Amino acid sequence: MSGKTSSFGWLLLLAMLAVFPLLSPGAFAYDLAIRCMINAVIVIGLNLLFGYTGQISLGHAGFVGLGAYMSAILTARFGWSPVFALLAGAFTTALLAFVIARPILALKGHHLAMATLGLGIIITIILNNEMEYTGGSDGMSVPAFSVGYWTLSGDRGWYLLLSVCLVATVIGTLNLVSSPAGRALQAIHGSEIAARVAGIDVTGIKVKIFVLSAVIASVMGSLEAHYLEFITPETAGFGRSITLMTMVVVGGMSSVGGSIVGAVLLTLLPQALTALEGGETIAFGLILVITMIFLPNGLIPTIRDRFARQRP
Question: What is the pTM of this model?
Answer without folding.
Answer: 0.94
